[in-house]
Write a structure and sequence with these properties.
Blueprint lengths: L1 H15 L4 H4 L12 H36 L6 H23 L7 E2 L20 E3 L7 E8 L5 H7 L3 H4 L3 E11 L4 E4 L3 E2 L8 E3 L3
Antiparallel strand pairs: 1-6, 2-7, 3-4, 4-5
Length: 208
C-alpha cells in the first residue's frame, strides 16, 4: 500500500511539477534493486534537498560578493587631500628660488666704466645695473665709455628715451666714464659714487 502511494506521488511529480534541474544529471536507480524503492527514493530526495541548499547558499554568497565589489568600486574621496597637499608642496618649491633671486643693493652705487656691475654692498662695491627711477618710473640706461653732451635737456630725454639710436646724438666718446639716464634725469659718472650723496636723483635699485 505504501509502495503504491509512493509510486503515485512520483508519477504526479513527474507530470505536473517542474523537474528539478539538480536531479536531471542523476541516474535513477531501478526500483526493487538494493535496499528497496521507498528507501532509494527517500535517499534521492534527501540528496536533492542538500544539493539545492548548497546551491542557494552559493548564489547568496555570489550576491554578497558582487555587492561588496560595488561598494569598493565607489569613488574614494580620501584621495582629494593628497592632491591638495602635493599641489601646495609644489608651490613652496617654486617660490623658494624666486625669493632667492630678489636681492637689492645696499648701498646703491654708480660708477665709471672701470667699475664692475652687480649687487653693491659695503664689502662689495659694485655699480648697480638694475636702476629704476621712482619719479618717471623708467629703467635707467647706462653706456660705457660715453659722456653726455652739455646741451642735453629734459625734453631731449623725454622724447628719445630709451632708443639708443636717438640718444647717441648727444653722447660723446670718453674712456673710463659711464653715461646714465632715465626719462627725467641724466648723469656722467667717472668714479664710484653712492647715490645717497646725490639728493636730486630718485634712482633706486630695481632688485636683481
Amino acid at each position: 500500500m505504501a509502495k503504491d502511494l509512493d509510486e503515485l506521488l512520483d508519477e504526479v511529480e513527474s507530470k505536473f511539477c517542474r523537474p528539478d534541474p539538480l536531479r536531471l544529471g542523476m541516474v535513477e536507480r531501478p526500483r526493487g534493486c538494493g535496499g528497496g524503492g521507498i528507501l532509494s527514493n527517500d535517499r534521492n530526495r534527501a540528496e536533492a534537498k542538500e544539493n539545492l541548499r548548497s546551491t542557494e547558499t552559493f548564489v547568496k554568497e555570489d550576491d554578497l560578493d558582487s555587492l561588496m565589489n560595488e561598494i569598493f568600486e565607489e569613488p574614494n574621496f580620501d584621495k582629494k587631500p593628497f592632491k591638495l597637499k602635493s599641489k601646495s608642496s609644489g608651490n613652496t618649491s617654486v617660490r623658494a628660488p624666486i625669493q632667492g633671486l630678489c636681492k637689492s643693493c645696499s648701498p646703491v652705487y654708480v660708477g665709471g666704466s672701470t667699475t664692475p656691475c652687480g649687487i653693491g654692498t659695503n664689502t662689495s662695491q659694485r655699480a648697480c645695473d638694475h636702476l629704476r627711477c621712482t619719479a618717471c618710473d623708467f629703467q635707467v640706461v647706462s653706456y660705457d665709455d660715453y659722456m653726455w653732451d652739455k646741451s642735453c635737456d629734459y625734453l631731449f630725454f623725454r622724447n628719445n628715451m630709451p632708443e639708443f639710436q636717438k640718444l647717441r646724438t648727444k653722447l660723446i666718446k670718453k674712456k673710463g666714464t659711464r653715461a646714465y639716464a632715465c626719462q627725467c634725469s641724466w648723469r656722467t659718472i667717472e668714479e664710484l659714487t653712492d647715490l645717497q650723496t646725490d639728493h636730486q636723483l630718485r634712482w633706486v635699485c630695481g632688485k636683481h
